[in-house]
Design goal:
Radius of gyration of chain B: 27 Å
Structural class of chain C: alpha+beta
Structural class of chain B: alpha+beta
Low-confidence stretches of chain B: 1-12
Largest interface: A-B, 60 and 59 residues
CATH topology of the domain at 225-328 in chain C: Enolase-like, domain 1
Largest sheet of chain B: 7 strands, mixed
Strand content of chain C: 15-25%
CATH architecture of the largest domain in chain B: 2-Layer Sandwich
CATH architecture of the domain at 225-328 in chain C: 2-Layer Sandwich
Chains: A alpha+beta (157), B alpha+beta (750), C alpha+beta (352)
Strand order of the largest sheet of chain C: 4-5-8-6-7
Largest sheet of chain C: 5 strands, antiparallel
Mean pLDDT of chain C: 96
Helix content of chain B: 10-25%
CATH superfamily of the domain at 225-328 in chain C: CO dehydrogenase flavoprotein, C-terminal domain
Strand order of the largest sheet of chain B: 3-5-1-13-10-11-12
Distance between the termini of chain C: 50 Å
Order of helices and strands of chain C: EHEHEEEHHHHHHHEEHEEEEEHHH
CATH topology of the largest domain in chain B: Aldehyde Oxidoreductase, domain 4
Oligomer: heterotrimer
Number of helices of chain C: 13
Shape of chain C: globular
Chain lengths: 157, 750, 352
């Protein structure tokens, strides 16, 4: 059984064919060449595969590719506007909030989703919201600083 | 940010700057290509099937069902696995381990690969592996201290001595005013780098391209090559980024060898990406220890004897004994010190180096024991540590090449507010009524170096390229090594192209032991100096150059120009020198390695002091670290921004060791019952407080030419003890096994 | 995972028809189902995707004052629905104390009820598990069972239901609305999850092909909004299942409890409501001693199913804490770390 799926990915209409047992993460990485989202666990426990579906932050390893039919997907590849990095991306570099970089795409997508809802979060709210994004290197406190710096910049904008 | 020892005067000033990581833009946009991101045309997917028993034999598998599954291309079992040119049960080199590559039907641990399925899609390979439904002749699993076989290993760690000591322990104990014997248990921990091990293999004749994260790129090529009977140069191993390594990604593992084999047999590229669950077994771990510390103390609170014994677990078929007692060799002064080890064989995968091997587990025990000793003497834990401060390395009597530990204690204690700490436990509550405790630990890590080499080329336009097979697993090799190379060349990092991260480059050695910056950095430094010396040679021998006659030691290199050392008005740019000489470039080479003389003369150790505050719910026992401050002295800091990340990361690993991480085996089957991120807890962001790492200035002219000691692992050491000691201070409960659990502290609560 | 057919029905009737065949599973968010399928503990032949069925995602106040929550409402959406959170702050807090942002965003109300135990032996296809394979035996019984059941377990199964959400629902007397081949029916949430007894494989009251369509909170459930709390003891500050948890609800007049509700989580194969404790609390003053007696009564029948005796004491203590906090008053705004005893301060108490 193979299924044609029509979606929007980072603003572009995209059609692909997949089997029902393929995850959205595997379709993004294998079929669409969008390898920014990573598989850290495959079981929804680490957040490295975070993307948004119709603006909703989810783990793409626990979404079937067929479920993406008609939905808008946003990945880390869509965060920057051309060459201009998103404030979160810049803040992560400036605050050394990334090391190995595997968890980073998922954390950026998650942090963006947080700030869209909560533009002025407390540190504890950031730590709680990002609890689903494991970082092993581990830059947790710097990540909070980076998110707060980006949030401040975005509030000023 | 602390400035550091000036580089030798020929160099510029780029090192020491807190540059942001150069790979940052690639990583924040998702454009950085990790091994599993590669999808060559025609690629197949490989999935290992793993054993569900811990000991015994596989007696049958439904290979036909797996083969019949749509999309499955090949199923390898011991019955049809093509031959390898090296026996997987023979160790290879200093770091190579015995592995499982389907050499026979025996099972040595749960999670061991027992078959290998290759298919057109990942889904088909995964289901093919599931359809194998293996049958076993199982023998009882030995996964506890009681059932394992106790033995005396020949060495600990990578070739370390079993026993080291000086002085008479029993005499020291006999003379002591107080004697203390205390026991500790540390659990199995798994590296769990966020990037699971992955490999994409592509053959072209007898040439092999490997995309795989690796911490020792050139060395690994030699190991991989041995299994396939090809020269190491035939392998192009590309490892531009590692999604974390922590010691688990240096040597080949069985599944990787099988992937390469399948690619050769099937004539197509093959990708392997282990699942998280498959990371619990065949790719190493930090094994359990059972440690005993015996201490004698005189009336003034000085150690009269310190005996640290550690029993380490290893597998039934290979040896890696955690050198945990080594932590006690260098830290505290005592007229008698003895550090000893033995081993227990269990039906687990073979352990290996995991971030701060030896010191992490050993310091966890030592630092709690030291606090217990301070308590026995009625002393503040900091005062006790200062009373037992080692001015020279205790066992060897060698001077330290540098040791700013006293300054670490002072700066850390001041920043933390340690002076107002009540001596007795259970004295502090916060405004919400939480029991609050303060604890500390001393951090220590040795400073190994590995042989490394590098090239530097100054080009006609005055820019340069530097080359070494560095491994960036997040620590920042792309940035810090480039800074060193650029500094040696007298150029800004922006003017220096850095080729790194693959095997067709000079050998950068091992990114391990916190020694990569020192080792590969020294090679780059020397290569840069060599290139500058050649440039100086051209200029100083050319009558048309303003530098004519200076001699190549008579110049300074800065900002792309050479200056006469005694008259800076005489200068010339690199481009001008090369243009006049009619040369497209000058090339330099350099090596990095430990100077045996300095290792012979000096004790080489980095130090630090970690302070932690823990809150404990007075009825429920739930614990949370609410503050953590470390102060570290590790020689020259090449990039304070990246070094800080390494310190903080290490401290969080210490927090995790103290409160979270533990792989739990089912006692009957030997399977790990929590082999995923839902069950194997590492801290989440909400477990981690605001924290700080203070860098203490330390000039070290002896450790190596750069004065670099290394920062990757020291943060764990001291931190476990700091958290455990804070728990004691909050509750009165003294942790002796890790991780500390709610039920452990509960009896001490109301 | 095993290959399967994927069906996206247009109506509830179509979904139920499609699910009539053995080997069919409903797919909601899949946060638990896909995890189990990947691990091999669940191997359905076909998935019926109910995420796009119309009319299942409403949160509506009914004429009689009851609150009806559609089965496809996402956990995060429900918790952040201002009217809902004001009326049922503990339900919101329980929802937000669970899992991670990603999973709460995806997971559905119905899926939360239907999620499986996190007993590692259930999830491991190589282990013996009566719940997964009837008659196979229970490896957990002699295995690593520190987090297993202390109430309502049997020799056949010692698993717990992991939901946070269901704990306050049980206390509030929620009703589960079900549609199936034989029509619609209702089951009290308290009776929805079955205790293992002799048939641990029967996990819920659902019959084959039946589908949870909504949860209904009865009209009186909103009356506890001023004095209620959910507290959860766990081994990470966030993103961990409860070792034990408790939802406590009080109605207070002149310092006297006129009505109380208490349910425990992480202790049994279903959320464990203690009517004995509730009776003890009714008419009592807001005193720690009373709460301790009620908590002790709630755990009177508890016994360890393995190496987990400590959970009995922890359940008692978390119950006392939840009652104390409920007595102090519901906070006006959710704590930044929902359900956590370690959360820092958050708004004024008494959400009356």
């Amino acid at each position: 059984m193979s299924v044609t799926v029509s979606t929007t990915v980072n603003g572009d209409s995209v059609d692909f064919v997949c089997a029902p047992d393929e995850t959205l993460l595997d379709a993004l990485r294998g079929r669409l060449g969008l390898t920014g989202a990573k598989e850290g666990c495959g079981t929804g426990d680490c957040g490295a595969c975070s993307v948004t579906l119709n603006g909703r932050l989810v783990c793409s390893c626990l979404v079937l590719a067929v479920e993406a039919e008609g939905q808008e997907i946003a990945t880390v590849e869509g965060m920057a506007a051309g060459e201009t990095l998103h404030p979160l991306q810049r803040a992560f570099i400036d605050h050394a909030a990334l090391q190995c970089g595997i968890c980073t795409p998922g954390i950026l997508v998650a942090a963006k989703a947080l700030l869209e809802k909560t533009p002025d979060p407390s540190d504890e709210e950031v730590r709680y919201w990002l609890a689903g994004n494991l970082c092993r290197c581990t830059g947790y406190d710097k990540i909070v600083r980076a998110v707060q710096a980006a949030a401040a910049e975005m509030r000023r904008a | 940010m602390p400035d550091t020892l000036p580089f030798p005067p020929r160099m510029g000033s780029n090192a020491g700057q807190p540059l942001s990581r150069r790979d940052g833009p690639l990583k924040v946009t998702g454009a950085a290509t990790f091994a599993a991101d590669n999808h060559p045309e025609g690629m197949l997917y490989a999935v290992p099937a793993t054993a569900a028993i811990a000991r015994g034999r596989v007696t049958g598998m439904n290979v036909a069902a797996a083969r019949a599954h749509p999309g499955v291309v090949e199923v390898y079992t011991p019955a049809n696995r093509p031959p390898l040119m090296h026996d997987p049960d023979e160790k290879l080199g200093l770091f190579g381990m015995r592995m499982e590559a389907l050499q026979n039907d025996s099972v040595r641990y749960a999670g061991q690969p027992i078959a290998f399925v290759v298919a057109e899609t990942l889904e088909a390979a995964t289901e093919g592996a599931a359809l194998l439904a293996p049958e076993y002749a199982a023998e009882p699993a030995r996964v506890t201290a009681e059932t394992g076989e106790r033995y005396t290993p020949e060495r600990v760690g990578f070739g370390g001595p079993l026993s080291v000591g000086a002085g008479d322990i029993e005499a020291g104990l006999a003379a002591a005013a107080h004697r203390l014997e205390t026991r500790f248990e540390t659990p199995d921990q798994y590296h769990n780098a966020m990037e699971p091990h992955a490999l994409v293999a592509q053959w072209d004749g007898d040439k092999l391209t490997l995309d795989t994260p690796n911490q020792a790129i050139v060395m690994a090529c030699g190991l991989f090559a041995a299994y396939f009977g090809i020269p190491a140069e035939n392998i192009h191993l590309r490892s531009p980024f590692l999604g974390g390594g922590f010691g688990s990604k240096a040597v080949p593992t069985g599944a990787q060898i099988l992937t390469i084999l399948a690619a050769r047999e099937l004539g197509r590229p093959v990708k392997l990406a282990l699942t998280r669950q498959q990371m619990f077994g065949p790719v190493g771990h930090r094994a359990r220890t059972w440690q005993t510390l015996r201490m004698g103390l005189d009336g003034a609170g000085k150690l009269t004897a310190l005996h640290h014994h550690s029993t380490g677990a290893t597998s039934s078929f290979d040896d890696f004994i955690e050198p945990a007692a080594a932590a006690s060799r260098t830290l505290y002064a005592s007229p008698a010190i003895l550090t000893t080890h033995d081993g227990i064989r269990l039906d687990t995968g073979t352990p290996g180096a995991m971030r701060a091997p030896g010191e992490a587990s050993g310091s966890a025990a030592l630092e709690v024991a030291i606090d217990e000793a301070a308590e026995v003497c009625g002393m503040n834990p900091l005062a006790f540590r200062l009373a037992n401060y080692a001015e020279v390395e205790p066992i060897t009597g060698k001077p330290y090449s540098s040791k700013a530990l006293r300054e670490c204690y002072e700066a850390g204690a001041k920043a933390f507010g340690w002076a107002s700490r009540p001596l007795a436990p259970r004295q502090m509550r916060d405004e919400a009524g939480m029991l609050t405790g303060w604890g500390m630990g001393t951090a220590v890590f040795h400073c190994p170096m590995f042989p490394a080499s590098a090239e530097a080329v100054i080009r006609a336009d005055g820019t340069a390229v530097i080359r070494t097979s560095g491994a960036d697993m997040g620590q920042g090799a792309w940035t810090a090594l480039a800074q060193i190379g650029a500094a040696a060349l007298g150029l800004d990092p922006d003017q220096v192209e850095f080729e790194s991260g693959h095997s067709h480059l000079p050998d950068a050695g091992v990114a391990g032991g916190s020694g990569h910056t020192a080792s590969a950095g020294q090679a780059l430094h020397n290569a840069g100096e060599d290139a500058v010396a050649r440039l100086a040679e051209l200029a100083s021998t050319d009558p048309a150059s303003p530098l004519y006659g200076t001699g190549n030691a008579g110049v300074l290199a800065r900002r792309g120009r050479l200056y006469a050392r005694d008259d800076e008005s005489r200068s010339e740019s690199y481009a001008e020198i090369l243009a006049r000489a009619g040369k497209p470039q000058v090339e330099g080479t350099g090596k990095g390695a430990r100077d045996p003389a300095s290792a012979e003369t000096y004790a080489l150790q980095a130090h630090g002091a970690v302070f932690a505050e823990v809150k404990v719910d007075p009825e429920l026992g739930q614990m949370r670290v609410s503050r953590m401050i470390g102060a570290f002295a590790a020689g020259r800091i090449i990039n304070p921004k990246l070094a800080r990340s390494q310190y903080l990361g290490g401290m969080i690993w210490g927090l995790s060791f103290a409160l979270h991480e533990e792989a739990i085996h089912d006692r009957r089957t030997g399977r790990i019952v929590n082999a995923d991120f839902a069950g194997y807890h590492v801290p989440v962001n909400a477990d981690v407080p605001e924290m700080e790492a203070i860098m203490i200035h330390e000039d070290d002219p002896h450790v190596n030419v750069l004065g670099v000691k290394g920062v990757g692992e020291i943060g764990i050491t001291g931190s476990v003890g700091a958290v455990a000691n804070a728990i004691w201070h909050a509750t009165g409960f003294r942790p002796h096994r890790f991780p500390v659990r709610i039920e452990d502290v509960l009896p001490s609560l109301s | 995972m095993k290959s399967f057919d994927y069906i996206r029905p247009a109506s509830i009737a179509e979904a139920i028809a499609a699910a009539a065949e053995p080997g069919t599973a409903y797919l909601a968010a899949g946060t638990n189902l896909l995890d189990l399928m990947k691990g091999g503990a669940s191997r359905p032949d076909r998935l019926v995707d109910i995420t796009r069925l119309p009319g299942l995602d409403g949160v509506d106040r009914l004429d009689d004052g009851a609150m009806r929550i559609g089965t496809m409402v996402r956990n995060a959406d429900l918790a952040h629905d201002p009217a809902f959170a004001r009326a049922y702050p503990v339900v919101a807090e329980a929802l937000l104390s669970g899992a991670s942002a990603q999973l709460r965003n995806a997971a559905t109300v119905g899926g939360n009820l239907m999620q499986k135990t996190r007993c590692s032996y259930f999830a491991d296809p190589a282990a013996a598990c009566n719940r997964r394979s009837p008659g196979a035996g229970c490896d957990a019984r002699q295995g690593e069972n520190r987090s297993h059941a202390i109430l309502g377990w049997s020799e056949n199964c010692i698993a717990t239901h992991p939901s946070d959400f269901c704990v306050p629902l049980a206390a509030l007397g929620a009703v589960v609305e079900i549609a199936g081949p034989a029509g619609s029916r209702e089951v009290a949430l308290e009776d929805f999850h079955l205790l293992p007894d002799e048939t641990p494989e029967r996990e819920t009251a659902l019959e084959r092909g039946e589908l949870v369509t909504a949860i209904r909170l009865p009209p009186d459930a909103a009356g506890f909004a001023a004095h209620s709390r959910y507290m959860k003891l766990r081994e990470r500050t966030s993103f961990a299942f409860a070792l034990v948890s408790a939802a406590a609800f009080l109605k207070v007049e002149d310092g006297i409890i006129t009505e109380a509700r208490l349910a425990l989580g992480g202790v049994a194969a279903r959320p464990w409501r203690s009517k004995v404790a509730e009776e003890l609390l009714k008419g009592a003053a807001l005193e720690r001693r009373t709460f301790a007696e009620a908590a002790t009564a709630a755990l009177a029948e508890a016994r360890p199913s393995g190496d987990n005796a400590v959970k009995i004491e922890l359940a008692r203590r978390i119950s006392i804490r939840a009652l104390l906090l409920a007595a102090a008053g519901t906070p006006s705004r959710l704590p930044a770390l929902p359900g956590s005893p370690l959360s820092s301060q958050y708004g004024d108490l008494a959400n009356a």
